[in-house]
Amino acid sequence: MEKHISPSILACDILHLEEAIRKVERSGADYVHIDIMDGVFVPNISFGMPIVSAVRKITELTLDVHLMIVEPWKYIETFAKCGADILTLHYEALPEKQIPDILRAIRQNGMKVALSVKPKTEVSVLFPYLELLDMILIMTVEPGFGGQKYIPESADKIATLHREIQRQGLPIHIQVDGGINASTIRDASDAGANVFVLGTAFFTDPSFDANQTIKELNA
Ligand code: DX5
Ligand code: ZN
């Protein structure tokens, strides 16, 4: 499966958001990752709808919107109107019985459908929903903050999910988010991930070459 990077604007200079988006475009990335945090599901507050709409107005990049909020189903239509292309909800924020309906609602609103699991949640909890999903986000740090260290045990989880997706022959992307840099990206990619979120490495490490990294991953 083709490998993509999804730079996270959580790590950019927000006063120069447009420049950050142009940097993403120049890098050869085709996604941009927008972290929505509510201070309840995670102990931090980041961006809301106006940022998604503002980014939508200036780019054709795939807007990869990661909701770290409680009751995320209430905002599906709103994020679709703001221009989100992929909507990721956390499994931990959803009432189990409503998951199929919630996932269908995301698709009916014209967006790609994704679920995420936090580091302590087994990935097998998502197996009953694979047919309704376009992407699964395996958090490789505790969600809430950029700049944390990649959890090495993530590789097993990625491999377990990758095996199940292969077994069922489904075209589901595996995304990883948290502590991804020039070295951890290899580990996650070898385990089977194909969409890589990078905040700190992409926006603050001058030695990180996104274009080269994408080429190497797809070689
Ligand atoms: C963390 C966010 C990430 C964050 C990653 O909860 O979901 O998207 O921006 O940042 P880095 O790449 O710095 O770990
Ligand atoms: Zn994220």
Task: Note the overall shape.
Answer: globular
Count of β-strands? 8
Domains (count): 1
CATH homology superfamily name: Aldolase class I
Q: What is the residue-averaged pLDDT?
A: 98
Helix and strand content put the structural class at alpha/beta
Low-confidence stretches: none
Counting H and I runs of at least 4 residues, what is the number of helices?
A: 8
Just name the CATH architecture.
Answer: Alpha-Beta Barrel
CATH-defined fold name: TIM Barrel
The radius of gyration over CA amounts to 16 Å
Distance between the termini: 12 Å
Per CATH, the class reads Alpha Beta
Describe the structure.
It is a single chain. The radius of gyration is 16 Å and the shape is globular. The protein has an 8-stranded parallel β-sheet. Helix 2 (49-58) runs parallel beside helix 3. It has helices at 17-27, 49-58, 76-82, 99-108, 154-168, 184-191, 200-204, 210-218, and strands at 4-7, 31-37, 62-68, 86-90, 112-117, 135-139, 173-177, 195-198. The chain is α/β, with parallel strands linked by helices. D-xylitol-5-phosphate (DX5) binds at residues 8, 10-11, 33, 35, 66, 141, 143-148, 177-180, 197-201. D-xylitol-5-phosphate binds at residues 8, 10-11, 33, 35, 66, 141, 143-148, 177-180, 197-201.
What does this entry show, briefly?
This protein has 219 residues and is of the alpha/beta class. It has helices at 17-27, 49-58, 76-82, 99-108, 154-168, 184-191, 200-204, 210-218, and strands at residues 4-7, 31-37, 62-68, 86-90, 112-117, 135-139, 173-177, 195-198. It is globular and about 45 Å long.
